[in-house]
Write a structure and sequence with these properties.
binds adenosine-5'-triphosphate, Rossmann fold, 2 domains, alpha+beta, single chain, 21 strands, binds magnesium ion, five-stranded antiparallel β-sheet
Length: 367
């Protein structure tokens, strides 16, 4: 059992501050994923949790105990990196056993723990091989095995799958989720990969420039991003934005006129808003459809990508130079054409000019 609290973590390298006032309360057995653009501080924050790096200010608290000053090995944490750094001259068995040998564990204890890890990670028939004879996914599993035998309270992973090809990443993703369930451990996982984040996380921390933008469930990040940064970062392809002006306020939401003279009433919270305010409307590519009868946005298709199940199109819409629409696989459209698109107002997002989102009146109940 392990809760992990980060309190007011700040970190500077010399004169450059890279993390700002990070406060996170991670629950026991939670799978938390850190995502964010390159250089936003994900690895630094993970290293501070592990003790490999010291925070300039703030506390790391595990199970209520302040471990900010504790040595990495005394924190009960295990970290798995992108480069799995196995010992090439040792067998899989010895690689997994390594931390136990360092701890001078008994032969019986080593045997029991290595076999237990090998069972969980499906490596039993590979124990006598050397790493050179393993696939990338198997090597990564050995690296995880090495961390499991230490029975850490918290597992930290820094982009552990990014050296693997797409198919293996998919398999490992499922294996890691299963592992999380089997071990009942608290896990913190850093990735660039949105699909990994969305599929594996109980909750996701979106970091940007060393600041936590939002810490929430994957579905809340998707359906109610707190600001334009999170809205654009979560979801693939990225959300489109069109400028608009508020023309009316009612219980049904905000009436507005989008650039291109499109009028819509969007069901969002209206507190603090007034007629004449400038806003931006956010529309996800998957929320528009080809609507020859009653479309409201006209896209001129510059690029059409047929993926089979869907047709991804890019081109200008009034108020958005490069709008992206994910339409039906068989939508009868071609490059160069201007076609009408429909969108349900309930699917739209609205952002104030400072980037903060207005609360949507209805969001799907899966959340
Ligand atoms: N030892 C260091 N000395 C000075 N600056 C550092 C050091 N380590 C990291 N930084 C800086 O801190 C910032 C955050 O780096 P960090 O490695 O945490 O980013 P990241 O989010 O993990 O990026 P990536 O996705 O590329 O791995 C970067 O601007 C980086 O240049
Ligand atoms: Mg990193």
């Amino acid at each position: 059992m392990a809760t992990l609290d980060l309190k007011n973590i700040n970190k500077s390298f010399g004169a450059t501050q890279v993390l700002f006032d990070i406060d996170l309360a991670i629950k026991d057995k939670e799978f938390v994923v850190f995502v964010g653009p390159s250089g936003c501080g994900k690895s630094t924050l993970l290293r501070i949790i592990s003790g490999l790096e010291m925070a300039t200010e703030g506390q790391i608290i595990i199970n209520g105990e302040d471990v900010s000053e504790a040595h990495p090995v005394d924190r009960g944490i295990s970290m798995v990196f992108q480069s799995y750094a196995l010992y090439p001259h040792l067998t899989v068995y010895e690689n997994i056993a390594f931390p136990l040998r360092v701890q001078k564990a008994s032969k019986e204890e080593i045997e029991t723990k290595v076999m237990e890890a090998a069972e969980i990670l499906k490596l039993v028939d590979r124990l006598q091989f050397k790493p050179g004879a393993l696939s990338g996914g198997q090597r990564q599993r050995v690296a995880i095995g090495r961390s499991i035998v230490r029975k850490p309270k918290i597992f930290l992973f820094d982009e552990p799958l990014s050296n693997l090809d797409a198919a293996l990443r998919g398999d490992m993703r499922v294996e890691l989720s299963t592992l999380h369930k089997d071990l009942d451990a608290t896990m913190v996982y850093v990735t660039h990969d949105q699909i990994e984040a969305m599929t594996m996380a109980d909750r996701i921390v979106v970091l940007n420039g060393g600041v936590v933008e939002q810490f929430d469930t994957p579905m809340m990040l998707y359906h109610q991003p707190i600001n334009k940064f999170v809205a654009a970062f979560i979801g693939q392809p990225s959300m489109n934005f069109i400028g608009a002006v508020v023309t009316g306020i009612s219980d049904s939401g905000l009436a507005m006129r989008l650039e291109g003279d499109v009028n819509m009433v969007l069901p969002v919270a209206t507190e603090g808003m007034k007629i004449g305010d400038l806003v931006e409307v956010g529309i996800r590519p998957e929320h528009v459809h080809y609507a020859p009868e009653n479309g409201i946005l006209n896209i001129t298709i510059d690029i059409l990508e047929r993926l089979g199940g869907s047709s991804i199109t890019y081109g200008p819409v009034a108020g958005c130079k490069k709008f992206c629409a994910a339409l039906d696989g068989e939508a009868p459209i071609t490059e160069g054409q201007t076609v009408p698109l429909g969108v349900d107002p309930a699917d739209c997002h609205v952002f104030k000019m400072d980037g903060t989102a207005l609360t949507r009146q209805k969001i799907p109940t899966l959340v």
